[in-house]
Amino acid sequence: MDSIDLEVLKTALKWSDSGARTLLATVVRTWGSAPRPVGSMMVIREDGHVKGSVSGGCIEDDLIRKIRAGEYRDRSPRILTYGVSADEAHRFGLPCGGTLQIVLECVSAQSQLAPLLDAVQQQRLVTRELDLASGAVTLAPGAHAAALAFDDARLITVHGPRYRLVIIGAAQLSRYVAALAKMLDYEIIVCDPREEYLAEWDIDGVQLSTEMPDDLILRLQLDSHCAVLALTHDPKLDDMALLEALKSPAFYVGAIGSRANNDKRRQRLALFDISTAEIARLHGPVGMHLGARTPPEIAIAILAEMTAMRNGVPVLQTHAMREHAAVTTASSGCRFG
User: Fold this and answer.
1) Are 203 and 182 in contact (CB under 8 A)?
2) Is the dihedral of CA 45, 51, 52, 57 positive or negative?
3) How many CB atoms lie within 10 A of CB 37?
4) Residues 312 and 279 in one domain
5) pTM, to two decimals
């Protein structure tokens, strides 16, 4: 499954290519409480069909009504602001004090959506710049930065896999983790020197590697937009990856296994050239304690914790909860923590 933004852009291109008048709406600013964050996108066809969302529904309804009535027919991008007054905020279902601003643009060949989507599907990071005065769009190689910048004259958006996830091991759990991570805009690399595990891999859009895990981690030169998961249960493979990943700026490094197994893992890591502070970065047992038992549930727990870390939200789990997770998963045979 594609991410929400990718689905919106694909739909915008399809509708425009079919000859239908198509408008792309992007949330560029919010004040106070807003139902959707900056960067949220929605595409609207002339008959009122929509994909994506910019609010809880009321703003969508207003845009659909106006477009069906023949408004916004010119090709110039425009800025729309909703919720300026308390009455308007109430009318459009915005929380008290909430205001949001949208850039509305007409989709055409000038929008450069086809080359943008081609680049994203090749796992490239791309910056799209819309000039509001002329409607001209330029594409350039992207960089790890904020997803959107807007100064009333230019709208700059970043598209593509802004985060990278390296999964060590290609067994069943890795498939569920990769499937969920695709929806969260990760570039995914699965590493397993055991070629028989990779032979049956069936998740599209994932890079596969038979390199030794430590060699791969060193080659990738991880940065703060990277995460590493060691999921093989084989210390010879997991520990090799962790030794290099924990010394990198990766925002998340986790390893599957019970609390007891991860304690032993930390003892093994301490025998090598790695500091106590670096070892302390290891998330093991990996994932939030959700009472997960099956591989899909464990994958959800892992991605939940990664998402919290990625968004800068403290993971407030008590030591007692961790203890309970270790006991529960050990008894069920699912050793994630």
Assistant:
1) yes
2) positive
3) 11
4) yes
5) 0.70
Of 12-16, 102-106, 144-148, the poorest mean pLDDT is in: 144-148
Residues 204, 122, single domain; the answer is no
Segment 228-255 mean pLDDT: 95
Q: Which residues pair with 283 in a beta bridge?
A: 254
Residue where one domain finishes, among candidates 95, 129, 159: 159
Q: What is the CA radius of gyration of the chain?
A: 23
**Range of 174's domain?**
163-332
List the structure tokens of 18.
């079919």
Q: Say which residues have a Cβ less than 8 Å from residue 199's Cβ, sequence separation at least 6.
A: none
Angle between helices 172-183 and 295-310 (to 10 degrees): 40
* DSSP code, position 111: G
193-237 confidence digits (pLDDT tens): 999 999 889 888 899 999 999 999 999 999 888 999 999 989 999
Select from 129, 133, 189 the least CA-distant residue to 161: 189
- Give, in order, the Cα–Cα distances in Å from 165 to each of 172, 184, 195, 220, 253: 17, 11, 20, 11, 10
